[in-house]
Amino acid sequence: MTSTRTSSPAGRFPAGALAFPHRDLVGIGELQTHEILYILEEAEQWVALNRQPHKHSDLLSGLTIINAFFENSTRTLLSFEIAGKRLGADVVNMHAAQSSVKKGETLIDTAMTLNAMRADAIVIRHGSSGAVRLIANRVDCPVLNAGDGQHEHPTQALLDALTLRHALRARGREEFNGLRITICGDILHSRVARSNMLCLTALGAKLRVCAPPALLPAGIGEIGVEAFHDFDAALDGAEVVMMLRLQNERMSGQFIPSAREYRHLYGLTAKRLALAEPDALVMHPGPMNRGVEIDSDVADLPGRSLITRQVEMGVAIRMACLDVLTRRTRGVEGWA
Ligand code: NCD
């Protein structure tokens, strides 16, 4: 396996378990900036492995990983499954629709059941904010948050940061410092927005968020991001534009007049993208609603859209997280 860790900031991270002292990964809000950077650095070897024809490591051989998804998912579930398998672990997926949750089992009882099966890591997606922390506090193994309600989606933010770092380096820029990023969409309901705001500001980027008034949380300015309702103004000078889906499933009542009007005011069209910096990068965590928050000619723009690259980096980030969080269990020197 080739390693791309030549740029590794040797000595910048605390050694061994101090580099990442957490048992679980529940939110970016629980991490220090150097811990975020450590995961990004660890992911580089997996980016390299995933680009080889033979994409297999035995690092987690003999370990069992349970992906417990209480909410729908395509890329996140697949990404965690591929990540675990590429590391040699036994990976099993539990879909809530086919589980005893449908028979009235409580979340705690489900957690106790998963725990009794002696999983070595549990990856959880759940519709309620805080559910992942609740389970993490009840089980004996590391727990990774694959999205909990409107709260956090930490691996998405980490993969977005890794994607951006690769794109910036390809343009000869090393750091996030001062990078002007505009996130537009359903900020209120988006765990991706929340995790990204925490992650990207920690890395030094200058963040703007843009949404209709009803979809912007109150007090957003207090967390160090600039809030906009006018998308054209929010795009001025942007070097990165991250678009988000309307999370209709989390809306009770009417938050926007219509999809047509939303597109008119907040959709990223080629014309609108021209208001940002000339070479501005485009991101979207998926799933996309083409023709609503983003037009196809922008989503598929060669050299500018990072959307498929985000999916690629997702597998590497999840491999890094699974590796780092299971080091204690595996008795890795300095971590056990
Ligand atoms: C996001 C999610 O589930 O929070 N998708 C993802 O994980 N890639 C965003 C969304 O559902 O809109």
**By helix and strand content, what is the structural category?**
alpha/beta
Please identify which CATH superfamily of the largest domain we are dealing with: Aspartate/ornithine carbamoyltransferase
Number of helices: 12
* Order of SSEs: HEHEHEHEHEHEEHEHHEHHH
Query: What's the CATH C level of the largest domain?
Result: Alpha Beta
CATH architecture classification name of the largest domain: 3-Layer(aba) Sandwich
Side by side, the strands of the main sheet go 7-6-5-8-9
Q: How much helical structure, as a percent, in the residues? A: 25-40%
Could you walk me through the main structural features you see in this protein, from its secondary elements to its overall organization?
With 336 residues, the chain is an alpha/beta fold. The protein folds into 2 domains: 16-152 and 312-328, Aspartate/ornithine carbamoyltransferase (Rossmann fold); 154-307, Rossmann fold. It contains 12 helices and 9 strands. The strands form 2 sheets. The protein has a 5-stranded parallel β-sheet with strand order 7-6-5-8-9. It has a 4-stranded parallel β-sheet with strand order 2-1-3-4. The structure holds N-carbamoyl-L-aspartate (NCD). Residues 75-76, 147, 153, 156, 191-192, 245, 247, 285-286 line the site of N-carbamoyl-L-aspartate (NCD).
